[in-house]
Batch of 4 targets.
Target 1
Amino acid sequence: MSLRALPFEDEDEQRRLSVFHLVGLAAGGVIGSGWMLGAGQAFRKAGSDAWLAWLFGGLLMLLIAGVMVELGTAAPKTGGLIFLPLQSSGEVVATVVAAGLWLVYAINLASEAVAMTKALSGWRVQGLLDGSDTLTDRGWCYALVFMAVISAVNLVAPRIFFRINSWLTVLKVLVPVLTVVLLIAAGFDDRGGTAVAHGDGKGAAAALSAVVGSGVIYAYVGFQGPLDFAGNVKRRPPGEAARLRRAVFGTIVGSMVLYIALQAVFTQYHDARWSAADMGSSPYAHFAAATGLFWLGVLLRVNGVVSPMGAGLVFAHALTREVAALSRAHLTHRGLQTARKASLNRRHDVYWLVLVVDFFIAAVALRALGGSWSALVAATGVLTLVVYAVPGVALVSLREHLPGYSGRRRDAHEVLARASFALVALILYGAGWAFLWQGLAALAVGCVLLLWLPSLAQWLPAFGRIYDAKVHVTQFREWRTRPSAQAAVWLLGHLTVLMLLTLFLGDSPIGLHHKVLGGFLAVVTALVSFEGLVRASRRHIRQVPPMLPTPGAGPTVVAPTPIAVSE
């Protein structure tokens, strides 16, 4: 049968978002709990060099964003993080990306709820955290309540949601900016603690490890919010592309400056005599109290609940659109794809069923990772980098099918795509085995579920009546001749090799030269895997021409030729 653009597929793309709304999505996702809790984690790993972790993470995000924005503006599609890899590389690669993206957004719900619970403990609510700073059973119940609240707020009409989120983001940005200004103005003296000597830094290698393990990547995640809604951007001058670029790049650059400044404040005010329990959920509130700015401390403690909640709202809302794209491709239950089937009513246009599934996944992750904020954000960091690596493959593979740019511009973006893919591999390698295996194990579980549930539905008719999706796992049987399966083998093989390098060389006690060798091999294998992915994807495109939206031409998908969809 031929796959054509269907009317319900355009429903999500009728709403038009301004730069204010787009920045609300980007900054609202970025400014969450990471800036409050990440500085202490980074400091423990890298000492006074912790600011380098925020610099490395921000530069990596700028590089990745350059690739993702180029792809998102050339083919603007709501739900594009799943839709575009599907068009370039086929169903199995799209399933791997979807599993990672779904887990990132769902685990974010759990991690922000944990941050809100930790903030309550700063208000002297007893019994929420144990001695290791993880949730008790009572704290776990509080986190579940916060997750339910975030999901419930997403049930309001989208026009109200975007208005609430945008103004909430303004408040969330003002508080950390005010914190930096006032604490710097208060002076780096003995009132706030003892300054850390310059020689207490642990070097660039420790800072590189902190990028994933200390919540740095987690703190930057969310800039892609406007790209999740790329099909909804206003088209009048200055146009879709300009609005997306301003929102994404402006958010990354602004947050990078803010995070480095916050880390500098933390490093200068930190005193080794203060424990994590002394400082509570927000060290900056403790610093404010130490300098006599009690009102700022109160504001920061309130923001400790508000800021994570705002970020959770953005991720939960964006996930509904990405899962809808996944459902339309029949990679998961088809009943999740339309507002008519999965929302409260046409007026609200909310995918409540996705929110229910999201809540369940987040609860499982919360329990599996022991209610630890650090463990949740480390898993999120690994999964995020895997998801962010694939748009570069899609951009290079779809080169001939995207709107015509100059050859020089295309070549430049191809270089950026390869560089971002290699750097992602290097950052994952530097994160270490302890973080990498947990994130990739979660990805494996997600892939198995998405790939095998359709087969289970065929074997069990009763289950098939409630879960309706196409079987794609059988493509691996034809991996020698089927390009889409070959692309998936290249991607999964790359991740497997990266795990082995990290296990045997990354955490090797033998010596520094073994770790350097492992990093070199990680980059080399990443570049080889990238070329293999692109070649397999291009062969897939020749067999199944992509259906891509045209910038500024409305949400209708343009198909160069009819696409045969296997049943």
Target 2
Amino acid sequence: MTIIWRPAKHGFWLWMLLISSLNSASAQEPGFLSIDCGATSNSTDAATGIQWTTDEPYISTGINQVVFRTFNSAINHNQLVTLRSFSPDRSKHCYTLPATPNSTYMIRATFVHGGFQPSMDNSFRLSIGSNIVDRLSFVESKIDKVFSIEYVFITDLTSDVIDFCLLPNGGTTAFINTLELRPLGVEMYDVVYGGRYLKKLIRWNVGATDSDPVIRYPDDVYDRVWFTPETNLQIPSAKTSRKISLETMRDNPPLKMFQSACASISLDGWYLSIPALYEPGLTQTFYVNLYFAEVQVVEATDVRSFSILLNGETYYANLTIGTEGRQVHSKALTETSAGATFTFIPVSGATLGPILNGIEYYGSGIWVVNSTDSRDVNALEVIKTSLGLGSWTGDPCFPVPYSWVTCETGSRVTSIKLSNYSLTGTIPTSIADLTALTDLWLNNNQIQGAIPDLRKLTKLKTLHLQNNLMRGAIPSTLATLPLLSQLFLQNNKFSGPIPAGLNRTGMDLLETYRNCTPPEFCRFLLPPPDSPPPGSPVFPSIRVSDGSGTIIGGLVGGVIAAIVIVLCVWCYYRRHENPTTGTSPAVGGNNANQTVGASNASSTRSAAAGAAGAVIGKQAKGFTLHEVEVATHKYKTMIGEGGFGPVYYGRLSDGTEVAVKVNSETSSQGTTEFLNEVSFLSRVHHKNLVSLLGYCEENQQQILIYEYMPKGTLREHLYGGDMKGRISWGQRLDIAVNAAKGLEYLHNDCIPRIIHRDIKSSNILLSNKLLAKVADFGISKHASEGDDTTGGVSTIVRGTIGYLDPEYYVHSRLTHKSDVYSFGVVLLEIMCGRPPNSNTYSDPRQYNLVQWARGQLNSSDLESIIDPSIRGTYNMKSMWKMAELAMGCLEPGGVNRPDMNQVVRALIVALELQGQTTQTYEAPKQVAGGGRANEHPSIFNTEISYSSTQSSVTSTSDHVPSWGNPSAGPPPLLIPQSTFARLPSDTRSTDQSSMSPKPRWLDGTQTRTVKTLNTS
């Protein structure tokens, strides 16, 4: 029912005011959220009536910035003049947006740099929920260009928020100008209900001209933006004001788009060519909508009927256009290497040429729903509140963990490292709910209060609470933690006795000094060797009542005096040493002389260690040179050579087999430096690192004694004349995982962190059970404090040819990503069973493994690079995951490589895939250096038949991001210009064989037959 109200003569302005208020109230659809990032006040768009809000309610990190350069934008120009930028000191910065569970949304993010900072140094990724959906990289040529990216996805069944995160890469600044959230209708873009998401690549109002405005809200009730095509279409444009019936449209396109079209009056065929928009590791197939409706005045006898070809093959036959709208769609279209070419050919009996009104072209990627275990999420929320970490939002583990969190598979938090975070407050009792925790580091903050009950943390290995303001007794419950081996409590205000159980066997390090209230319960331990002496400005003297400070000071002074006396005696004897009874057996003399020499050497070693201030723990036992020579039978059996020097087999007096590394004679490292480094390495413990058992420093000879790995090196099981036996693909994956974990520990958990600098297959050693351990690390290879993936460490280039990071080689800039590159070469060795470079393998021609494998993968030929000895034994999905990871590690630019944490996660997924047996499908054919195509055969929602000689593989989803084409770097933000051109008028022939080259998947053994196509 329509009610007409005619206002009185003098009520005209009241009527206009009412109309204006009604328009304003209805100007925005329910659920619209438009965020003006960096703005300081809310605003309303004059053209659309859409209301914009500041971003302060949705994010708590970043700073407001202003765009300084001029730019052109067809939409939201006023909102793009501000932005919010984010420092690289965090792994992610997340907007938390309100949402309705199990609902379909479109999210649009817009970026324009505009000179907000002096340099164009911006490379970052975007994530929605647990999915990394884009990689963005800005260069100088893009400084005043506007980039708008849209995604369509469905929220999960329970979450009432959407996390949209910016993930900085390699020390660069992330930024964003606007963020828009739009709810879509039920069942729109229904492919998202099948576990996928969409990224908008093209959305064109095909019949628009340059003078026509873009179509958006309110003409499109979902505020999708329909642009004029980027190129001159060369096809006549026609328009109508007639209302076109759209009742059968599944994705609710706007009427205004249907009221214009490119239409051929004559019987000319034409084509629309879209270049390859495949994004390795992200979108893999494509969701396409083609829209048709008659806009011209035609005679009753006219017939507009044509067929559509896709890459030369029939896509839809005999499409007849009438007065109602038509939609032809593809849910999983795949491209050839040249892209997708749609050809429109009039059929026999047609009197009018083809017509096209609009097109939507989306990339389609796998949508994964992952979240951290709810117990850990709840515990971390309390911890963030208690310690002032509320600005950390988003899921703690996915798609990348917080900078201070480490997560293992199973979505559990295993490590919290919050050293030097300026934290205040107290440690909440809920921290004990993180029952998978192995490492807890809260040192060097301003934390107060007592140590809570941690008895539920049965997996805890290290606890760092030093250098805080904590009080109370040391809980006896700490002694009940079965795996706790390192406990640091020094420089707090703890009181009372140290629980007796903490002195148990297995406690490697227990530091409690500077906790003396009251003094009679104090246990005084000397500070570690790198600490200033007591009484210095940095480490003031300990002050306690009842004169205990004087007593402790006297003790310290006495210890120092004793060390000085020992040094003086040692120097005296060294200066007056009898040549006939020298300390080295190599000098000569009988066995008695050798024994005396060994005793002197032992004193020498102890005194030198004291002079260096080194704390040589029980894990690094001191040996005399005589003991080393006896163990090695005078260096009889050389078993290898590393960066430190030659390696010899040995057996200690207790029967322990060891590998003895003897420093080269050219080493210039002094005694003090050597002992300090041995002190450090004696504290480096991980099951995937070769353990340092002992050392010897005598007669200017420096020797390291490591555990012996009886199965030799990984290289010896992959290729070469000294092969020790082939290993299966599953064993290779397990070795890769364990080696990566060892390297991850060096990069992330050592203080200072270690860059290996010479990762190669001969530095990965194997135990009797093929447990992989990384060797030859540590000595003179510490990463300088503050090193990151961009700053680098200027140093002499060292390493092994074939494994060297090209960025390191060219710029002498060593980073942790240099190790990642070398490890990528190792992954190729594991896959291919070939050395990194050689002129003797298989044929006499010299080759480079990285270049060769990259070329084969770019040609979509994975099977040709796989080691023949393992063919037929592997799961192809697992092999693809390994190939993608290797190519990601081998990216020329370090900022584009994964870190070792991500490498470990990806390898675990590959290992899990190898053990799974689910529905099989034909192996993906298109990789482009790391991606996958044809992953799901049901494209177009039709029956597709395949014929392939490739191995069947397991179909499964995962949450680990794939790593793409190493030669391309991050994909460009600009969509390549498409081709839209006229075909000759004589192309009506039903013989379509000459229309265009056959796509790659139609060549050779790959065939495809499209039988039916869903249309509306």
Target 3
Amino acid sequence: MSDLTLPTHVLTEIDSPVRETRLTGVDELGRIAGGNDLAMAAAARNALERLTQDDSRSVSVAATTALERTAIRVRPERVDFGQIAPGTPRVVADVLVDGPPLALASSTVAVSGPGLRAMLTGRQLRILWQPRSEWLDGSVTVRGPAGWAEVRVTGQLGVAAPVSRSAVEAQLRTVNTTVNHAAFGPSRVTVLPAAPPRRRLGGIVLIAAVTALVVLGGAGVAWALIGRSGNEQPAAVAGPLPTSAPVVETTAPAPAVTLSKEPLAARRIASLAKPTVVGTVKVGAEPEGVAVAPDGRTVYVANQNSKVLSIVDTATNKVTPLTLRNTPRFVAVSRDSKQVYVSMYDTVLRGSGVAVIDAVGRTVERYLDTGNMPYALSVGPDGNVWVPIHGEGRVQVFSAGDQKPEADITVPNNPHAVGFSGDLMRAFTANHESNLVAVIDMRTDKLLDTVPVSKSPHSIAVSPDGRRAMVVSYQTNTVDVIDTVTLKRTGPLPVGKGAQCVAFAPDGKHAYTVDEAAGTITVLDGQTGKVTSTVKVGRSPRTIGVAADGRFAYVANGEDNTISVLRVGE
């Protein structure tokens, strides 16, 4: 695609010897690449690809970030049909396919898994499984002009005995057992023979397989079907899409951005057993909560010794302060990166609430009244905001746009944090003074069960596959690992002194605890909870936020008034 398609002023900007002018051109290209004119969008994307090799680090990072926002995306990235009763003819799940017009143009679908089929109509990807074997561990790949995205699909054919309650819960979350094939019009299906048994494969082989399979349907509908022998091992699963890499203040030069020739949307970030600190950023007074926007462009830091939220641009390292009505404590970001939610309280009995912030305009939209001492709030898989009310032993759930909670759930004292298993439709809270983890049914907003854990559980995180919850306990310097299906606990397992926050890497292979008294981050094996390394950060670290692409993580250092930037994946 020729650059001549692009506006003259944009061509002038990106060819300028002045870095700031080229950055302006990158912004223009990003806007054009997301537009409806596909020819111009393709030209803009080609120009962005060239600019990822720019001599200026800030220009190359900005171009990489803009380019990755043109990629195709799927939500959710995992579908689990759970345990299916014998004799079930088919089960169905719907997945949203998102991205700018160019990403979705001429999209095709490829499927790997016995009895698995998929059909794309507009932005809806319908996945159907006709059980042929005792298990399913497959994938559905949607490929377009701007890369590809993958949905991992799992399921199991049960025995004649009654299906367990946990399996039914998983099935109800993702399965719609009614399907009308005629409603989707005619289709052409390409069937490939079953592949021979092989070892678990990486991205290069999977890309080759996808390239070999092209299936097209009529009127914008794509179908795919592939058989696979029962002895074949499942292929590797694609991780979250890459986002941005920050420019950070360091005593040594910041590491250069290494750009792979692999398509950006197909690139996968593997978490490191030994992360490294690559820089620090000065923020407000006594930072506590930290969160990274899902698009990776912004980090939000709640400074609890002021009434300021620090907004950090990861591409330029610029920090913008936003003054709030009350003292910010913790922060969460909506799944589309457009809104930010900040829990606030000045003292135990004063100033409680949640600030709702327009992320684009960087202004406060409104304040929500909450119970006493709202703590580490989270955005659920349904987009609702879950606010643990530390001082009152309950969790309040707010829908988008609501001023009052749509649910008020009683849990043991005192809830500190919330994690989610979307497949199981379960939420989990770490309850500090009760030494319990509460298990909540997200369909009914009722307490299902509690799990005893070590003393003073401060924080909880659920693995990306939804199957493990890791709970960190402040007084015992340990973590406990909970199976989210069986609710069986493993642990306690030792971590650093004064551990008070935990988070998973997006690939699930590692987890991180923030050890306030030790001034370290403890890196754990994401499956077993065993320590793989420790990393020294600033004084009195409080919380950690991990970027969705898994490349960087950000740690709030309470006594240094900084955030440490860690390279946690590559």
Target 4
Amino acid sequence: MTLVLLWLLSLPLPALSEALDLQCTLQNVFNPGFMADGHFVIGGIFPLHYNQEMPDLNCTYKPGPVKCNGFDPRAFRWALAMKLAVEEINNSSKLLPGHTLGYKIFDSCAYPLTGQRATLAVLNGRNEADMPMCSGAGPMVAIIGESGSAQSIVLSRILRPFMIPMVSIISYFSSCACLSDRREFPTFFRTIPSDAYQVKAIAKLLLHFNWTWVGVVRGDHAYGHFALQGLLKELDGTSVCIAYQEMIPLLYNTRRALEIIHVINSSSARVVVVFSAEGELTPFLRDCMEQNLTGIQWVASEAWVTASVFTESKYYPLLGGTIGFGIRQGHIPGLQEYLMMVNPQKYPSNPLVQELWGALYGCSPSPSSSSSGGTQLPFCTGQETLHKQHSAYMNTSNTRITYNVYKGVYAIAHSLHNLMSCKPGNGPFINSTCTDVTKVSFTISGERVNFDMKGDSIPSYDLINWQKGTAGNIELVKAGIKYDIFIYILLFTKNYNYLSFLTSDCCVFGKQVPVSVCSDSCTPGFRKAVRNGEPLCCFDCVPCDSGKISNQTDSIDCMACPDDYWSNVDGTACIPKVVEFLSHDAMGVILTVIAVVGACVTLSVFTVFLYHRNTPIVRINNSELSFFVLFSLTLCFLCALIFIGEPTSWSCMLRHTTFSITFSLCISCILGKTLVVLAAFTATQPGNNVMKWLRPVQQRIIIFSCTLVQMLICAAWLIASPPFPYRNTQYQHSKIILDCSVGSDLAFWCVLGYIGLLATVCFVLAFLARKLPGNFNEAKYITFSMLIFCAVWLAFVPAYVSSPGKFTTAVEIFAILASSFGLLLCLFAPKCYIILLKPEKNTKQHLMGK
């Protein structure tokens, strides 16, 4: 309206007066491509050209109309399919008997502005040029259109303000999910499924081939916008991420196209999903070829996956291997013969037929004609025969969009037939009415055609793969079918094994598909660590921590192994932990040998003393106590063997009690010997009768009493909190350390403390008697033995606390053996030396120092 006002103001005064005349005048002529009269007229709007050239809009003069370029033989076939369907219905005696259908077919130029103009033209009477403006409309009942969703939205919204409720729109190629809104588009129907189903199928396709890093290119229209939003919704929560989203401008711009191509080339995503129509996609793909864009796996939407314009051999390096979902194909009987009948002689004044000839043969039947691009074409007779190789026009073997147009016309005819033949109270609709025009069902070419409550066709898709034909062109191979709209199952036929995918070098056949991931999959033993600021599909592979595993590819987190298990080296499985205890391995064998040798040496000394029991050195040192000491030392050596082997409940209780009682017995005997030695030398003083208190009976009582105290401590220990086997999994996580827990730490240290107390008392008494007269003063050797004993056990305390695993037990055994050897050597080595090597000194006189 603003442009019109500016134009009026720019006119001179006489012209302005003429322009403001009350008489309406037609400013431009917009004639239909095909037209026929009938009782009911059906409009048809098709993108007979796929590109447009905008006029100069500088507002200084009257702008010209939008110029359409790029004749599309495929869309021309759609228009002829509508014309064929109308003629079949008019010749039918069963459908609409006594009535005929007319049609008016216009070109939308694949552009909403031109589509709007075509919509107004199709509503405005028979012919704009033959009748006054605004004088009345023809008997229009429905419109077959449009191909693009944006154009269909314009078409639907134009009808609402004009209050034309009886005119329904049946689209053959507008799949935008937005058009399913019955409140906004109450008279819109379509024979193509909604994009709500297509995006579900594409999402499942991406997941099936593990294409987790994909780019999306869409057109600048409602179809592209809603398809992208639907795909993002379907991919939400899945493993697929969108690397980029690019939009081809509605008015094509080469500079913007080059920017998009740069994004595609620089991205690591090798799979690109394209929601676009042929109009904007054709120049874009040409620019892609000029930029030598290769190595892209294209996933096509139904809007262009079956476009014949791209099947030329020049497109194969770019588009070979393209995969996508095409709408269901159908059979139109007699279509090929009908197309063959179209020629310039039959339609001498139809400019569309002239352009068809130019597109198919590169010539014009009229010397003054030119191509849609403006170039002058050579002359031809117009009698050339159409050949099957003109696939964009003559491809009738797998009609899809053409079949949708055909179904749309029959849907209108059946709806009119039902309305006209329906009797009130006996109708096929709710409450037996005849007024619900939204319900129609019929059979055509063996297919049952139904519409859901939203006016959409029940969906069914073919999986299409673009493969190289024998002639070097692209062949559209049906590789699989998507069925069942309720559970959305993606099914592949046996042809799935022969899918062709184009890589940067060559075609790869079979199940070997291109890889399109932001990050390579994490193998078992690793987990995914998301990179900061990047999508979830971009991650680093981090090895699982010790004790954790991942046994699946692309694990989000590592699982912790149970307490008794640990991860293997690769971090892929939990294996039983190594059970460690002081077994009969190298260390255990060495300690066993030392203990046995110590016991054998002790028994040898016992034998020597027994054999020489009547000699002075044995008798003067209290042979009975010496035998008790040797017996207890033998037990001390042998008790070390109980510490070797797998701990059990009995062995844990036995090892500590045996060790404590035998050492208490040994130290008690040595204490008795010390008291006897000290008493023997003090008894020589006048009036000292201490020896009567240290007779053999009293000595035995002392030994038994001292040992009994330790036995009582051990009994209380076993009753209150006995030692028990303990599986230590905390000290070294990769191992289970089997050891004996002392149960009560207090009892354990009481046992050791009591032994230390006996040793300390014995050491003090022996130290006091160390300088008593005599060549063989046993008090000296007892002093040394207690000094070694105390030193060993004092060193044992920090070593025991700090030793790991089985070395704790080894330290305890070492302390037992070291202290036992210390006692044995200090107390009995000098005596054995005299007995065996110096028998001449084994006399009372020598030992008494006289």
